[in-house]
Amino acid sequence: MATLNPYLSFDGDARAALEFYAAALGGQLEISTFGEFASDEMPVEPDQADLVMHGQVTTEDGLVLMASDTPAGMTYVAPTPGVTIAHTGGPADHDRLRAAFAALSEGGQVEMPLELAPWGDHYGAFTDRFGVSWMFDIGTE
Question: How far apart are CA 97 and CA 126, in angstroms?
Answer without folding.
Answer: 14
